[in-house]
Every structure is written in structure tokens, then in C-alpha cells.
Amino acid sequence: MTIQLSDHFTYKKLIRFVFPSIIMMVFTSIYGVIDGLFVSNFAGKTSFAAINLIIPFTMILGGMGFMIGTGGTALVARALGEKDNERANRYFSMMVYLTIILGLILTVIGIIFMRPVAVFLGATDAMIDDCILYGRIVVGFTVAFMLQNVFQSFLIAAEKPKLGLAITVIAGVTNMVLDALFIAGFHWGVAGAAIATGISQCVGGLIPFLYFCRKNSSSLRLVKTKLARKPILKACANGSSELMSNISTSIVSMLYNFQLLRLVGENGVSAYGVLMYVQFIFIAIYIGYSIGCAPIVSYHFGAGNHDELKNMLKKSTILMGSAGIVLSSLAILLAGPLAKLFVGYDTELYALTHHAFRLFAFSFLFSGFNIYASSFFTALNNGGISAAISFLRTLVFQTASVLILPLFLGVDGIWWAITAAEIFACVISVVFIFAKRKKYQYI
């Protein structure tokens, strides 16, 4: 039976609807992790540290796609809830065309400034060439990366989450196969990892683009339209939290690397890289759930169905809390095997990574609720609160924690920083939800 945005969602129906989005995000994270796994084991820890140093910058550029996708989806799903399909298609088309134009501009900027960015981020003489090579190749595929991020949200609004999952799986398998071929087979090192990633992003971005260009069975299609300032600004404001989260995470990653280079050296950057790769998979569950839920919330907000908003918030809070307990427990149990998988070839690096991951694991208790709370307000077309939660969670609290805690706890303070930040963010999220309960009537 087809599940529609207008349905009432039981736990079973909700999980069925968001499950493709969760798997899609997890799979996306896994094939990103495969890059690091191959580079670490076949190119060495210096090359591994180099790509981990430059990835935050490339993610900032690609994160523009998340902003346009999540913010634009909130507008489009609300228009669908108001039964205005013509306006929904115009908004959808504007967002896709904007993504292509912005992607081309960012590609040029990224390629030109890659060397000074690598130097600014603290690349050592041994790392600088790999940083620039990897960064320039990856940035060359920015348009495809942004389109992939945009369509992950719009395929859900179009009630085609299974298609989104299928495309993600195809892109992921492409990346994994090419990683094995280019890195393990041809020994192309970081260049092989970058090319494999770029080609997979083309698969993930261009297939849905071609799908929406043609007449299809979904509620959305690309149409001729002009770029209008008001809906674009509204979409960017709505999606600013996702962009803020992406930029903040990247900035904080740079700060972590600065601190680790100072306190531990190259091994610290490599250990943090392992934590980030594994975190991508765990956090992807929360992000996938939130992306899958957002069009439902936007639709019922547009339709004025307050009972369903209450239903979604209650069920999502319970699910995020339960998932937090499970994922934190898994992270602690798997700390050793995962560290061994990535850096088992270096005893000192393995011990550092294993210890760091056991401390880092407690952050998953709180991060799911915080991610959902930010996404929930984006879906309600309240980009301001959504951005505030993301800004405080991913930048302010983490920056303060990673700067202050090492003064008292040494290197362990760096590993505890994210958990401290998530706890403070959880308090802020709860405050915002209660503060706006009368306006949106979701409690």
C-alpha cells in the first residue's frame, strides 16, 4: 500500500515511510567511509590525515545543496499540502536551477583557493600536496554533489523515497567498486579516492535530474520558470539551519584538527578522522529519519492538521531517545573493532583511536533529538529557530567545549567536547519546543 503525506502516521507507517531515507543516508555515509578505509590502508596515515584535513572545506561547498534541498522541500511540501501543485513545481524547479548555478560558481572558487585553504587549515609539508590534489578533484564535482543533496529531500516530498534509496545504492556501489579499482588496484592514492567519489556523486545527482526532467508518476516535475527572489530567500532562510550545521561542523572539525595537531600531532588528526567517519554512519540514522519526516510535518502544517503535528512530535521524540540509547551502546561495544579496521596497522594510533571512541560514544545519546528538533522547525518554515539550534549545537557549544575542556582534561577534553555540546543543545531544543507550543499547537 502506498503511503501518502496526507496519511495519519502510526509507528509502523512512520518507520516504513522514513526507512528508505534512513538507509539512503546510512549508505551515503558508508561509501564515504570506504574512501577513508581504502586510503588509510593502502596510501598510509599521512594521506589519510590529508584528506581528513581538507574534507571540512569541501563539505561546506556541498552543504549549500542541503540548504536549498531542505529549505526548498519545506516550501514545496507546504504548497502540496495547500493543494497548489503548479506553485509546488515552480518552487521545485527554481531550487534545482539555483543549485546548478551556485554549484558552478563554488567550483571555480574552490579550485582557485584550494592551496591557501590547505595552508590555512594547517597542512604540513608532507600533507600539502595530497590536500590540494584531493580537494581540487572533489570540488570539480561540486554541482553533482549539490544536486545529489538537493534531490535526497525532494524525492521524499515527491513521495518517491524508494527511488531515492535505489539511486543512493547505485551511487554507493559505484563509489565502492571504483575505490577498490583506483586505490587498491591502480594505486592512485588520494586522487583515486577523489575521482571515485566524484563519479558516484554524478550518479546520485544526474539520475534524479533526468527523472524529473521527464513526465513521471510523482507529484513533481521540472518546468520552465524564472528565478524569483522571494521564494529563493525563503527557502534559503528555511534551510539555513542545515547549512549552518554543515558549515559549523566543518569549522569545528578544523578547530579539532588544530588542537589535535598541537597536542598529539598527525596521529591525533588520523584518530579524529576515524571518529568522524564512523560518526557519519551513526548520525546518518538521525539525519535520514529527520529528512524523511520533514515533508510530512510541512504537509500537515500547510493543511492546518495540528493533531498530526502532535502525533509526529511525540512519536519522533520517543524514537530518537530509544535510538540514542542503542547507538551509544553499540559505539562503546564496537570501539575496538572499528578502530582496528581503520588503523590496526599502527599500535599507537589504534590505542589512541580506541580510547577516543569510547569517550566520544556518549554524544549519540543526545544528538538525535537535537538533529530532529532543528529539522522539525525547518519543516514548520521557521528557519530562524532551526538555525539557532544548529548554530548553538554545532558551533558555539562545540567551539567552547573543544577550547575549554582540554585545559582541564588534556586530550580527553577534546573527545568529551562533543558530548558536552550535545547536552547543552538538548536543553536549548527543549526550551524552543515549549516556547513555540502555542503558536504551532504541536503539544
How would you describe what is shown here?
The chain is mainly alpha-helical and 443 residues long. The protein has one domain (11-440). It contains 17 helices and no strands. Helix 1 packs antiparallel against helix 2, helix 2 packs antiparallel against helix 10 and helix 14 (364-379) packs antiparallel against helix 15 (383-409). The chain is globular, with a radius of gyration of 21 Å. The mean pLDDT is 89.
The fraction of residues in strands falls at under 5%
| SSE topology string | HHHHHHHHHHHHHHHHH
Number of strands: 0
Total number of domains: 1
Return the structural class.
mainly alpha
Molecular shape: globular
Describe the secondary structure blueprint for this structure:
Layout: H1 11-42, H2 45-81, H3 85-112, H4 114-120, H5 128-139, H6 142-157, H7 161-185, H8 189-213, H9 229-238, H10 240-263, H11 266-303, H12 306-343, H13 347-360, H14 364-379, H15 383-409, H16 411-435, H17 437-440
Give the key terms.
mainly alpha, 85% helix, globular
In short, what is this structure?
Helices cover 85% and strands 0% of the residues. It is built from 17 helices and no strands.
